[in-house]
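Q&A log
Question type: sequence-to-structure
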Amino acid sequence: MSTCGRELLFLIAARLREEREKIGESQGSIAEKFGVSTRTWGKYERGETMPDALTLSRLGGELGIDVTYVLTGQKTPHAVDSISMEEQKLIENYRAMDEPARLNIQAVGDAFAQSKLKLKTGN
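Response status: OK
Response body:
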C-alpha cells in the first residue's frame, strides 16, 4: 500500500474512533453489536484494515455515526436523517392526520413544552 493509502487509512481509523467515543461505546460493545471481534474492531481503529460497506452503512443507520465524516473528514450537516426513529414515527403520524387533529396535537405539544419551561424557571 502506498504512503498516501496508509495515511488515508490512519485518518479514517482516527475518525472512526472519534465517532465511537462520541456516542459513548466501548470497542467491545460496538464490536459485539456488529458481529466482529474486539480485535477486528481494534484493527479498524488502528488503520490496519477497514470496515466493509455494510458495516459502515449500519454504523450510520443504527448508531447515527457520521459515515461521511469518517470517510472524508467532512462533517455532514444535521438534517432530517439525524432524527431518532421515535421522532420519525411522530412525524409520520402527524403527517397522516387531518388539519383539526394536527391543531390539537400542536396545542398539546405547546402545553407540554410550556409546563416543562415553567418547571425549569420555577414559575
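Response note: Helices lie at 3-22, 27-33, 38-46, 53-63, 67-72, 85-96, 99-121.
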